[in-house]
Amino acid sequence: MCIGGPALIYYVTPTEEELFLRYNPELQRRSLERRKEKQEDFDNFVNKLKEYSKSDKPVWTVWEEEAEKRRQLGITAELDRRRATAAEAEKLKEEMKNSLR
């Protein structure tokens, strides 16, 4: 029983290739399209972890600090984008008013 159980599970469990071939063609196509993107994301993640591990602080602390910095930059960028959009809309409004007169 101790030897047969894991052997049975190993025999019954399908490989990644067998699972991929069971996908419908649309899922196979999407999976192949996103494979490179996923690999790049993973490589980026690993590189960041290596960079964070060089610090004296724990990795999760450095990760949270970096996330907070990105959030602040994202908020700032979002506000700048909204202000630019509002200014452009105001400019368009003025042009429309002037063209009607």
From TrEMBL:
Membrane topology per record: Single-pass membrane protein
Coiled-coil residues: none
Keyword Acetylation: no
GO CC terms: mitochondrial inner membrane
InterPro entries, sorted: Cbp4
Its job: Essential for the assembly of ubiquinol-cytochrome c reductase. It has a direct effect on the correct occurrence of the Rieske protein, core 4, core 5 and apocytochrome b.
Major localisation: mitochondrion
Organism whose genome encodes this protein: Recurvomyces mirabilis
Domain of life per record: Eukaryota
Subcellular location: Mitochondrion inner membrane
Pfam families recorded: CBP4
Protein name: Cytochrome b mRNA-processing protein 4
Entry keywords, A to Z: Chaperone, Membrane, Mitochondrion, Mitochondrion inner membrane, Transmembrane, Transmembrane helix
GO biological process: mitochondrial respiratory chain complex III assembly
Record family assignment: Belongs to the CBP4 family.
